[in-house]
Amino acid sequence: MGFSRKSTAPAREVRDNLSQGVSHLKNAGVAAAKGTRDAAGPRVEVMLTKVGIRKKQAAKWPWVAGAISVGVAAGGALAYLIYRRRTESMGEALLADELLDETEEPSRDDPRLQDPQLGEELVDSVTR
What we know:
The protein is mainly α and 128 residues long. It is 77% helix and 0% strand.
């Protein structure tokens, strides 16, 4: 860091050494500022919020959880309606097959033969 006799431009060497020193001081200042910000930042935010200068940000996760729960409830209700329609149509198809099945002979004790109006209502509800 000293001056050498072989140097052709001692002023240039001094200038280079001073610019390096200034760079080191600048880097040290930046590092100190980052450390101070990281250490004091949360405390400053709390104090600014308490004083009323800054408003506390609302949490966004309750909205997300609410939207997911509404979606799940709507999906469950839709699935139940589809299931109910499907089972009703299957039940009606089975009933129609049973009523219109001509392979077995009806017995005289069959209640469907005793009430013709009921038989007609069942056939009408199946053919709708």
